[in-house]
Specification:
It comes from Rhodococcus coprophilus. The protein contains three helices and no strands. By secondary structure, the chain is mainly α. Among the domains are: 33 residues, no CATH class; 31 residues. It starts with 68 loop residues before the first helix and ends with a helix.
Length: 138
């Protein structure tokens, strides 16, 4: 038995096959088989995008400044909401309410409710006119 001096004490590595060995474990009777799945579509290699460099504030007097805590959060350091943040919340809620009303009015059920309302208003106006006529002296 001859030993190589370079590999003294090492276990020789088996040669790696070029392709993986197929699974040849026999299936048990009644085991469903998996159909061959075709390969998926080729995904193109997309290079990563470079992030935009961060803009650093210029020298004094350049007109660029960092936003304040109040501008970012809408609250002062004491936790009081700023006037601008309150105004924005009110405008946002108002716009949302107006938009929801417009959408509801344009829906099928909204139009039918509007038609029913107009019919009731007309019936009420007719009834009021009838009552007024009955109260007049003849």
């Amino acid at each position: 038995m001859s030993t190589d001096e370079r590999n003294h004490g090492r276990i020789p590595e088996p040669e790696a096959p070029d392709e993986p060995a197929p699974d040849v474990t026999p299936a048990e009777p009644g085991t469903p088989t998996v159909p061959d799945v075709p390969p998926g579509p080729a995904i193109p290699d997309v290079p990563p995008t470079e992030p935009e460099p961060a803009t650093e504030p210029g020298p004094a007097g350049s007109g660029v400044r960092a936003p304040t805590i109040e501008e970012i959060t809408g609250y002062t350091r004491d936790g009081v909401p700023t006037l601008d943040s309150v105004r924005e919340k009110i405008e946002h809620r108002s716009a949302t309410a107006i938009g929801a009303e417009e959408l509801a009015r344009e829906s099928v059920s909204g139009r039918s409710l509007e038609d029913e309302y107009e019919a009731r208003q007309a019936a009420a106006a007719d009834k009021l006119a009838e009552i007024r006529r009955s109260l007049r002296p003849e």
